[in-house]
Amino acid sequence: MSSKKIVVIPGDGIGPEITAAAREPLVLAARKAGLDLQFTTCLAGGAAIDARGVPLPDDTLAAAQAADAVLLGAVGGPKWDGVAPDLRPEKAILGLRKALGLYANLRPVKVSESLAAYSPLKPEIVAGTDILIVRELTGGIYFGPKCESKTVEGVERAWDTEIYSAPEITRIVKMACQAAKGRRGKVTSVDKANVLASSRLWRRVAAAVAKEEGVEIGNMYVDNCAMQLVLGPKTFDVIVTSNLFGDILSDEAAVVAGSIGLLPSASIGDGPGLYEPIHGSAPDIAGQGIANPIGTILSAAMLLRHSLKAEAPAAAIEAAVDAVLAAGYRTADLYRPGLTKVSTNKMAELIIKQL
Ligand code: IPM
Ligand code: MG
Description:
The protein has helices spanning 15-32, 46-52, 58-66, 90-99, 123-126, 166-181, 197-213, 222-231, 243-257, 294-306, 311-326, 344-354; strands at 2-11, 35-41, 69-74, 104-110, 130-136, 147-152, 155-159, 186-191, 216-221, 238-241, 264-268, 273-277, 329-330, 340-341. By secondary structure, the chain is of the alpha/beta class.
């Protein structure tokens, strides 16, 4: 058995319940691939603000840096809405992304026939959708020079700056092209090159990278992409885009799939990867045992695939989730008459049984 170090950051709201539920399926699948997982639980987000006064304590960061991978629940909640901008729970995620060099965020959005009915769009438009969003994660306007408030000529102003370097664009587009080769081979690079200089550089570099990688690339303005995602989500394969555009489009794509509780994400780059469901901390339902653990369990599958290079157990978890959903089991968020409503833990148990 080879041993791997996993840091678990439960975070806030439903975070502790869903990370707890994901642990056993992860352990079981890993064991079958000869991997013995050693877990360390660390504080971040609002929980860390309450206990330690900061959203990302040094020991959490150090543990994450020394780990093979990090599994995160969710951070944030109305309780911390009033804290200073630099101490917000979200700073924990942004700090981890930057410190771990996690420059790529992968968000797969897949809609099976049985889940198409959950979409707010017509089932025939969404069924068969299979998109991989590759979002740049450590650059752009999220991390550019900013000013919270400055009074200039008697008027208060604030600003953020979108900056991209050619190497930052190159590495993310390259990752998207390589992902496309294992899929349908089509990359859509999304920008706002009709207005933004940073997008014009993005488009130029993206074209050169795609040519070198031998991958077909199309360009789309972000406003048009937002529209095309609801008009014809099936037409997309891999979407590659900047940090801010990716933040917005990935939420839109998630809601097209209709079941935000099912969607995982992987943030990868130079160091250990960070895996988290794309939904938030849902403080309104925290502690009731009704949260959907599937987004986190599928994030654990991505952890196995990307950080531990264990494809077979990753695929086994995904197949187990599909089987449990196909058998009609649903947590409250996806329950409909005629199906079987189960709790967070029961859902995890059913998935474990499938494994
Ligand atoms: C996401 C979230 C984060 C982001 C927040 C929590 C900082 O919306 O992962 O998409 O904006 O990147
Ligand atoms: Mg977001």
